[in-house]
Amino acid sequence: MSALELRNISKHFGAIRALNNVSLTIEPGEVVGLMGDNGAGKSTMVKVIAGNFAPSSGDILINGSKAHFHKPLDAQKAGIEVVYQDLAICNNLSAASNVFLGREPVRRFGPIQIVDYGKMRSRAGELFARLKSETRPRDVVRRMSGGQRQAVAIARSLLTDARIILMDEPTAAISVRQVAEVLNLIRQLSEHGIAVVLISHRMPDVFEVADKVAVLRRGELVASKPASKSSPEEVTGLITGAIETA
Amino acid sequence: MTNVTISDVINRSEHRGALSRITGQQTFWVFVAAVLACLALTLMTDTFATERNLFNVTRNFAFVGIVALGMTAVIASGGIDLSVGSTVVISAMTIGVVMSAGWPFWIGALAALGVSLLVGAVNGILIAYAKMPPFVVTLGMLSVARSLAMVLSNNKMIYQFGPDHDLLLWLGGGSTLGLPHPLIILLILAAITAFAFRWLRWGQHLFALGGNEQAARLTGIAVNRLKVSVYMFSALMAGITGILEVGWLGGVTTNLGQAMELTVIAAAVIGGANLAGGTGTAFGAVIGALLIEVIRNSLILLGISTFWQGTFVGSFIVIAVAFDRIRQARSSE
């Protein structure tokens, strides 16, 4: 059964057709590289999946049953998490505090609830170990590498038992070594049966980890095929329109 | 196999020993500076280390210190509160008016704290929900609150406080075990604030908000409510100070707490609160207030004109921020 299925999804903003009849299935543990030029509809698609926008028409199916997302929280409850690159990290807090931000475990002492730092650290440590990331829960995020920051952001989504993780440009603006770290994180997620949608402009990164490539052009899905049967050249052609469909 | 090494790395606690962690704190160096200033003054003058003078110093710095606790919370959350001096006077005036009309102390104190909280709530709501810049909102409130205090008292001095007159004066001006009451209250409030910063979700969220507001929102923290609570906390601290200052002075006029905001901001910033948000400690606020008061006191004792005070306080803010810039520039290299 597919982790996520989009059936004939369209999204119109007035006369503008941001997404037109897009259908795509994503299996558990599958890594899908979603590519397209600026304005091709990638962000709109992510926002539809994440519950920010309701589609104008079409259905979203989670594990085979129809889902209706009215707000991001609905999508989160269905196991869909979005990892925002650096947007959702507080540099001044520790890694553990960041992972648990807004959901800190507490211990009760009468009327007072005290943040349970011990639990936060040990749980965050487990998650980092699962991601095979050398990230220390007590360390302040300010001094961390791009890869470690991604690990923090991803660990946060693991906390809620996400089944599908959407990553928006996770490898933009970080060093080569850090890109390798992030790609490793994606492989770890996939090994744990979590589906990953990787939105990226960076062709080599996508082809390194993706099982499937999906290409959007002017709101239409022009390709959705195994990465092994495609190539960076083909995808570039699809993005620009030099190749019609594949 | 690799798993073992990774979990070793993960479980290794953060860097360095206790000593280097302490010396890495701005608060530590400010504390050293304050101690050195005290030592120097003790040697240079025969008036500093007298019981009378120390009593005065501790009491004076307590007022700035209490307000600085609230200011530290606001600054750490990424905001600023310029209305604290005016909140002090409106609180003082409220308790003065209520008590001089013959009401008991506790009613006057509740009214004063209620008015202060209202001031903070108005600040917070305008900043959080109307999305107005804290600087503008609290600058407006600086003017409004002081003006309301004038309206309330008809700009007259109040020095008769009805049946509980002596209780009020004892609370603000008296001492227990040789410690002036404002100092005792400062220490209690500092302990509570430090606890709240470290151990309550409120504290965690406050620092998260100051670190990255967008992150705080994305992770589902009720940012707007949090902001209102922070400005109310700041106003409450100012309100408590207002009550204590009336008791200490034995009277209240509408120029109480004038230009206090600058000293308080200086105390918070010297104590390690970063004006960009995200850092600050309760202990730092107390130490910052102490250093400023010691310097102020030394100017008087050394016979330097008090006109110089503003120069020192103003320069302190700029220097503290400059140090922070230098440190940031170094750590980002």
Give a structural overview.
- The complex is a heterodimer of chains A (246) and B (333).
- A 6-stranded mixed β-sheet of chain A has the order 6-9-10-3-11-12, with helices on both faces.
- In chain A, 32% of the residues lie in helices and 29% in strands.
- In chain A, α5 runs parallel beside α6.
- Chain A is globular, with a radius of gyration of 19 Å.
- In chain A, α6 links the parallel β9 (164-168) and β10.
- Chain A has helices spanning 42-49, 72-77, 95-99, 117-130, 146-158, 176-191, 203-209, 232-240; strands at residues 4-13, 16-26, 31-36, 57-62, 65-67, 80-83, 106-109, 112-115, 164-168, 195-199, 212-217, 220-226.
- With 246 residues, chain A is of the alpha/beta class.
- The longest helix of chain A is centred in the C-terminal third of the chain and has 16 residues, at 176-191.
- Chain B has 333 residues and is mainly α.
- A two-stranded antiparallel ribbon of chain B has the order 1-2.
- In chain B, α6 runs antiparallel to α7 (134-153).
- The longest helix of chain B has 27 residues, at 223-249.
- At the A-B interface, β8 and α4 of A face α1, α10 and α11 of B.
Rg of chain A is: 19 Å
What's the number of structural domains of chain A? 2
CATH H-level homologous superfamily name of the largest domain in chain A: P-loop containing nucleotide triphosphate hydrolases
Overall number of structural domains of chain B: 1
Uncertain stretches of chain B: none
Query: What percent of the residues of chain A sit in helical stretches (DSSP H or I)?
Result: 25-40%
CATH class of the largest domain in chain A: Alpha Beta
User: What do we call the CATH topology of chain B?
Assistant: ABC transporter involved in vitamin B12 uptake, BtuC
As a percent range, the share of strand residues of chain A is: 25-35%
Instruction: Please name the two chains that share the biggest interface, counting residues whose Cβ lies under 8 Å from a Cβ on the partner chain.
Output: A-B, 33 and 32 residues
User: How many DSSP helices of chain B?
Assistant: 15
Roughly what is the average pLDDT of chain A, rounded to an integer?
Answer: 84
Distance between the termini of chain B: 35 Å
Shape verdict of chain B: globular
Helix count of chain A equals 8
Unreliable spans of chain A are: none
Please state the oligomeric state of the protein chains shown: heterodimer
Q: Could you say what the CATH topology of the largest domain in chain A is called?
A: Rossmann fold
Helices and strands of chain B, in order, run as HHHHHHHHEEHHHHHHH
